[in-house]
Design goal:
CATH class of the largest domain in chain B: Alpha Beta
Distance between the termini of chain B: 9 Å
CATH topology of chain A: Nucleotidyltransferase, domain 5
Helix content of chain B: 25-40%
Order of helices and strands of chain A: EEEHHEHEH
Low-confidence stretches of chain A: none
Largest sheet of chain A: 5 strands, mixed
Order of helices and strands of chain B: EHEHEHEEHEEHEHEHEHEHHH
Mean pLDDT of chain A: 92
Strand content of chain B: 25-35%
Strand content of chain A: 15-25%
Largest sheet of chain B: 9 strands, mixed
CATH topology of the largest domain in chain B: Rossmann fold
Oligomer: heterodimer
Structural class of chain A: alpha/beta
CATH class of chain A: Alpha Beta
Radius of gyration of chain B: 22 Å
Strand order of the largest sheet of chain B: 3-6-7-2-8-1-9-10-11
Chain lengths: 120, 278
């Protein structure tokens, strides 16, 4: 299964960016072997006035990702991810490698609702 | 002629100036309150409202039976108000600006436009002055479409006076755009000057001639006046921090009624604007 992790950089060792819609990069990782498949450049989105979370959700859903690991997820992004069947693990810290490790150990508690306000 | 009354800083006296200018010109004027989030000209003018109508924004509603999931709607939307995600098209009505592109481009004609209430327009009279105001729906965040609707009521045969919201963002620009002249109201304090500079820069980009009214001119410092001189901005009027004006204001009495000698000052200001407008 593919996992998406919001990141400050392009590598698995980069720190997780707690923001979903406005993270500089979104890493797409194969959970089976931990391979980094793609580092989505989210720059265009991160500067968006509004709707950044929705576009980031679309980018994640279009890549048939099953799980998103990030820090915060607002209401619009959350409903978009929910519609696409992407499970969301929030409050993630450390690096993408740390988050993948937690996922493998079944330590991720998936969110039932957004954990951030919409940004105006 | 269209004259907008604006200011960077809030509470400098926009409404005081706009309402007194309208009253001084009488039947030659029309006043339109474009500060739709908190219209307050009515407090000083006590208009008789004779007509009102609701204002809606058309937002998309998708017929899932007809939708073929092509995603064209989401590609054209600049605001992520409609998006194809997974096997569904989601809409976010509060992000929609009502352009209608999604419904026009939908090859399956699956998108219908449904109304989202923005607010109301109210119209009436204050003696012989035409009065118009917009009032936004509580909870609504998008004011420019409602401001544009207020502006459709502009009477070209009158001096249309637009009371703008404070600041220098979209609602201000929407109000001021296509005006013939902008009156900037400020107070001679560091706060007033800071926000005046920001607002002047924004209006300069629109290329509309401006003049400045300094309210409570005998408080603060002379920096605002120096700034106007440096910028070549005409000083249209100075209003002192007079007890009579404040007492009138506190009771909801317009400046030209608590100090009738200001009627001529406002008429002179209007003549100056007429000769120096676009």
């Amino acid at each position: 299964m593919k996992i998406a992790v919001t990141s400050t950089g392009k590598t698995l060792e980069s720190a997780i960016d707690p923001r979903f819609g406005r993270a500089p990069y979104i890493l797409i990782i194969e959970s089976e072997d931990g391979e980094l498949l793609e580092a989505i450049d989210n720059a265009a989105n991160s500067g968006a006035f509004r709707g950044a979370g929705i576009q980031a959700a679309k980018a994640v859903a279009d890549r048939k990702v099953g799980v998103l690991l990030t820090g915060h997820c607002g209401p619009n992004a959350f409903s978009a991810l929910e519609a696409a069947g992407v499970k969301v693990g929030t409050e993630q810290k450390g690096t993408a490698l740390d988050a993948i490790e937690r996922f493998k150990k079944n330590e991720i508690v998936f969110a039932a609702k957004p954990n951030a306000e919409a940004h105006w | 002629m269209i004259v907008a009354v604006a200011s960077g800083k809030g509470g400098t006296g926009k409404t005081t100036v706009a309402t007194s200018l309208a009253l001084a010109l009488g039947s030659r004027s029309q006043i339109l309150d474009c500060d739709v989030e908190e219209p307050n000209c009515h407090i000083l003018l006590k208009p008789e409202i004779t007509d009102s109508y609701p204002v809606n924004l058309p937002v998309p509603s998708v017929d899932k039976e007809k939708c073929s999931l092509c995603g064209k709607c989401g590609e054209v939307c600049q605001f992520s108000a409609i998006v194809l995600i997974g096997q569904t098209v989601l809409t976010f009505p509060e992000l929609c600006h009502g352009c209608g592109a999604c419904s026009i481009l939908c090859p399956e004609r699956a998108i219908q436009e449904v109304p989202r209430r923005l607010g109301v327009i109210e119209m009436g009279f204050v003696k012989d002055v035409e009065f118009v105001q917009g009032r936004i729906r509580i909870g609504e965040a998008m004011s420019p479409p409602l401001i544009r609707e207020v502006k459709t009521r502009i009477n070209r045969d009158k001096v249309a006076i637009l009371d703008a919201p404070p600041g220098a963002s979209c609602p201000v620009i929407t109000t001021v755009k296509n005006s013939d002249f902008v009156i900037m109201v400020t107070e001679p304090t560091p706060f007033g000057l800071n926000d005046l500079e920001i607002a002047v820069e924004a209006i300069e980009d629109l290329g509309i001639p401006m003049g400045v009214v300094i309210n409570r001119c005998d408080i603060g410092d002379s920096d605002s006046k120096d700034y106007c001189a440096r910028k070549g901005l005409p000083l249209l009027m100075e209003i002192p921090n007079h007890r009579k004006i404040a007492e009138g204001y506190a009771r909801g009495v317009p400046l030209v009624e608590s100090m009738p000698e200001y009627v001529d000052k406002f008429r002179n200001m209007s003549d100056y604007i007429l000769n120096n407008k676009h």
